[in-house]
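Help wanted!
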Amino acid sequence: MAMTNKTTLNIKMTDTNLKSKTFNVGYVNPESSDGTLREFGAQIASLTDMSLNEVYRTNVEDITNASTDTSISGFPLLTNSQLLTTNSQTYRTKIKELLPSDDAYYFGDIQLSFSYSSGGSTITLRRSIDIPVFYNASSFQDVIDAFNAVLYQNGQKISSLSIPSTGSISFEDVDDKYSSIIINSEVDNEFTEAVINEIGDNLKEAPQGFTYNVSRDQTTNKVKLIYINKQN
Amino acid sequence: MKFDIQRFNDTVESSEVLQTKFTFTDGDTRTVNIPNPRNDITSAEIATLSEWIVANNVLIGDQAGAPSEGIESAVIVGTTRIRLDLNAVT
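Answered by r_m:
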């Protein structure tokens, strides 16, 4: 099922140690005014010990049906075939090379494990991947944004992720239409490509009917999300 | 070889999040984790926020964009992490 354009809301706050934390509250009404969304952010901040810094939208555009030979900001859209034939070990190494050398902001890894439901039972795929998360780095927010609304932590869908954290993502029928996983991208296209290919390798053991979509952030015009859908 | 881990220099980190579970008119749900919640949050504040969200139709569901029915539950979840001082291994 193709996803229509949607808007999510990000709220950035600063704690007493001057560390900023940004989280995403999920999809918001695209017709909500700036003032209403700012008020919403202020109300959320009032429940915390932090001060409000920024409230901003993220627009998500589905480009599932875009031509696969199109390149957006230098990032090629991958075909299913490309996804499934990539040497994951190469990209696993590449991910490590791309990590910042300064580990001062290192919070830990989010471990993604993959499973799907079949005949009432949950089947876990062969491997999992770890995505490093850095506090106060752009990748932090990207990961938070990326997991919006489709991250299942301990079996419960959440819209933001508390770091450090370990969670598992399960493919789950949503109104028997689709299920999805969204992966960070804006930090580094190469990094994103590596992660996407990691997933592609995992999908080798997924049942038939799984495929992927790629969408882009309308604001940055960069590839932002990958969906792995269970076709109807 | 036996390793004895000395705990003197272990560091303890604790954090809390306010888990708010929203419901939508199409049956969808969403849990939003709000970091660093105040320790004196009242149920009345949660109820007020819930009413405000519904009145202003701010949040919509993931599946069909259905409007929110408000906050079904709010739970403060605390996490404690103990980082072992591996340099103290003898």
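OP: Thanks! One thing I noticed: The longest helix of chain B spans residues 43-56.
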